[in-house]
Amino acid sequence: MIRKEDTYPIGRITKAHGLRGEVVFDFEDDIFDRVECPYLICEVEGILVPFFIKEYRFKNDTSALVKFEDIDSVEQAQKLLGSNVFFENKFIASGNEEEVSLNYFIGFVIADTDGKQIGTIIGVDDMTENWLFEVQTPSSVVLIPAHEDLITDINHKNKTIQMNLPTGLLNL
User: How far is it, in rounded angstroms, from Cα 69 to Cα 71?
Assistant: First the structure.
């Protein structure tokens, strides 16, 4: 059984394509193309289900046409419409960590170098050259630079990131 905490979201199935059971997959992270993984995980009626990839091709920078094994008709493909798509963390751990996008860290807890929890990453702002973690603290949402010089440790198993933040950054 695949647990949600062992995955991270990478996109959504938006529509059926053609008559052979292909689907349009709008993705926020193309890790499925960069890390060897035989399947994508779709959330179907609240359950995470692996679907093995037969073939895929990119439509543009944010969507791909995907043909899953055993999905051979428009009717079968339509059952996947609206499904959130996830990538299993274990394939990242066995691959190159530099292949990970910042969206992978959504749900991780940020702590300072003393181990004091600051908050949980709820999003990533990548609209500027300096990417930011959107962190939910007990009192508000703060933006913290997602810069490697500030990160002192990442624990993938416990989903924590230890950071050495400049004094006063959280008070801005």
Answer: 6
DSSP state of 156: T
Look-up of token digits 């997959």 = 25
Q: How far apart are CA 101 and CA 93, in angstroms?
A: 13
Type of residue numbered 3: R
Tell me the domains of the chain and their CATH numbers. Answer: 4-99 (2.40.30.60), 105-165 (2.30.30.240)
Q: Provide the CA 169 distance to its chain's centre, in angstroms.
A: 26
Query: Quick check: 1 pLDDT over 90?
Result: no
pLDDT at 24: 96
Task: Render pLDDT for 53-103 as a digit per residue (tens, 0 to 9).
Answer: 999 999 998 999 999 999 999 999 999 999 999 998 887 754 455 556 677
Higher pLDDT, 23 or 159: 23
The values of phi and psi at residue 101, to 5°, are: -90, 165
Nearest to 158 by CA among 105, 122, 113: 105
Among candidate residues 2, 39, 6, 1, the one with its CA nearest the CA of residue 157 = 6
